[in-house]
Amino acid sequence: MPLLYKVVTTSSCSGRIAIFHGSADTGNSKGGQWLLASHSTVENPGKTWEEIQEWLQSHSGQDTLGTLTTLLLEPFVLHAECADAGLAQHMLSVAREAGFRESGISLGRKRVLVQIRTLAMRLEVPLAMDGQLLVDETYFQTLIRLANQRLDENLARTNRLWMKLKEAFSRCAVAAQELWVLVCAQLHARSVKLALEGHAWLDDNRKMQRLAGGDEKGADDDSIGLPLTPEGVENLKALAETVEEEMAQREPVVEETKINDQADQAAQPAQGSKLPKRQRPPIEAANLEALWRQGSLRLTQAELPLKSRPAPASGLHSGAKERSLEQVLRNLIDELKPPLDVTLADTLLKEICEMPSVLWRGDVALLTRGALTGSSWETVALAAEALPGGGLWERFRQCLGARMLARQQEIRVDDEVRGGNVQVLAGSGSGWVVVPGPKGVRYSFDVTKCMFSEGNAGEKERVATWPVEGETVLDLYAGAFAHPHAAAAHLPIRDWTSWKNWKTYEDISSFLPPVLCTVL
C-alpha cells in the first residue's frame, strides 16, 4: 500500500473468541490461564463445553476461590504509529467510516498513535465463579453461536477497513508518488487510449493532455500524454526492457525500415489536412507492443491535471453497465419485505459505488477480491432468493451482460503452481473462456483455475524463431506453441500446471494438427 513507509503498526489482533480463567479481583491482573483462544469460529461447542468442565473439575479446591472464568469476544484492534498528525487524522476518519467508531488518536512528544477498534461487538460473559459453573450447556452453546456470528461480522468489518484504507492511501499517494504518463503522437492518441483502457492501465483520475514541446526527449507540439496507473507503468517498463533486449540482439534492417516508413507516409493524409468524418476508419485499440517497437511511444514523468469528478477505473467493459449496478441494488432493496434497515442499505450502496472496476475474461465478469463481501451482503443475497426477479448476484450478472459472474479469491498457496481461485456467484456453463491476446493469438483457458497474463508476447515470438526441424518438442503450455513449432517432427502437448488433474482443452482439436500433435 502506498505511503506505508509513513505508517508502522505497533500491535494488532484480528479478533478472537477466548475463555480466560483468572482472578475475580479487577485490581489483580497477574496470573490466569487461557482455556481457549481462537481467531476463527468455534466449530464444536459441545466438545469445548466438555473440555471446560474437565478442566474445572481437575483444578477444583482452595486454588479456585476468588477466581472467575469468562467467555470473551474481542474484536479487531490495531495500533499504528503515523509520521504526522495529518496522516493519523486521515487514517482515523477512514476507520470510523468503516464502522470502527471507538477509534482515536494519542499524541505524545515524539509519537502520533492511531488506535482502530470498536466495542460494538465485544462480548464478556462469566461462565464460572470459584470453580463452579454458572451456566448450563444449552446456554453455553447459545453464547458460542452468538460469538461466532460476531466474529464473522468482525471479519467483514476488517475486510471493509482494509479496502477503504487501500483506496484512501492510494488517493493520498498521488501527490507523493512518481506520476508517469505514456507519450504518443496525437495521431495515435485515441487508439492508444483504447488499448490502455482495455488493460485497465489508464489512470481515470487524471486528464490526458497535450504536452509542452522542447524537452530533452524530443517532444513536439503534437505529443499527447496519457496518465498511467502504477500497474500500467510496471507493465510498460517491462515491455520497454524486453524490446530493448531484443533490439540489442538483432541487426538493424535499414532497407526494410525505409520502405515501411515510405509506405506509412503515403498512407497518411497530407500535412495539415484531415479526412472527412465519413471517410475516417473506425478507431480500434492500438497494438502497444508494435508502436513501442516503432519508437512511437515512450514513458516520462509529468503532472497532469486531476479530473473534477474522478471516474471509476476502466476495464475491458467499463461504462454505464457497471455504474447501473447501483440502480439494480436500489430496486432490489425496494422489493425486500420486511424493508432493509436504512443504515445498512446506505452502507451497501456506498460499497457498490466505491468498489473497484469489474474485470473481464471473455464473457465472464470478475469482482475483485474482497468486493461486496461480509455478512450484510450474505443477508441481502439470502433474502433476495425469494424474489421473482432472481437473486442478488443473478441480477448483477444480467445487468453486466455476462455469462457468468464470479469473485476473485486468495491465490491458493497450498497449490504447487499457485493457481488461480475464483468463487462463482451466478451464471451457468463451464469456466472456459477465449481471450484475444497480442499478435492475433487467442487464448482459451478455465478462468476458475488459471490466472491469465497478456504479457510475454515478445518472449513467445523469440522462442518461435528457434530451429526445430526434425526435433521432438514438448509443449508444456497446452498448445500455445503448436503453430510456431509446426516444423517439428512431433509435438507432445500438455499444461504444466495440471500434471495431476489434466483435462483436455475443449476446443484443442479444432486448431491443432492431428498428425503433428499429441495431447498427453
Your description of this structure?
By secondary structure, this protein is of the alpha+beta class. The chain has 4 domains: 4-173, tRNA wybutosine-synthesizing-like (SSo0622-like fold, 2-Layer Sandwich); 178-251 and 284-314, no CATH class; 320-427; 455-519, no CATH class. 32% of the residues lie in helices and 20% in strands. The chain has 13 helices and 21 strands. Strands 3-2-4-8-9 form a 5-stranded antiparallel β-sheet, covered by helices on one side. The chain is elongated, with a radius of gyration of 30 Å. The model is unreliable at 214-219, 253-273, 308-320, 478-483 and 498-517 (pLDDT under 50).
Task: Give the averaged pLDDT, no decimals.
Answer: 75
What value does the Rg take, in angstroms?
30 Å
Enumerate the strands of the largest sheet in spatial order, edge to edge or round the barrel. Answer: 3-2-4-8-9
By helix and strand content, what is the structural category? alpha+beta
CATH fold call of the largest domain: SSo0622-like fold
The parts where pLDDT drops under 50 for at least 5 residues are 214-219, 253-273, 308-320, 478-483, 498-517
- How many helices? The count is 13
**What do we call the CATH homologous superfamily of the largest domain?**
tRNA wybutosine-synthesizing-like
CATH class of the largest domain: Alpha Beta
Helix content: 25-40%
Number of domains: 4
N- to C-terminal distance: 43 Å
Shape-level CATH architecture of the largest domain: 2-Layer Sandwich
In terms of DSSP E residues, the strand content is 15-25%
Query: What does the overall shape look like?
Result: elongated
Keywords: Methyltransferase, S-adenosyl-L-methionine, Transferase, tRNA processing
Organism: Cladocopium goreaui
Biased composition (Low complexity): 262-271
InterPro entries: SAM-dependent_MTases_sf, TRM5-TYW2-like_MTfase, tRNA_yW-synthesising, tRNA_yW-synthesising-like_sf
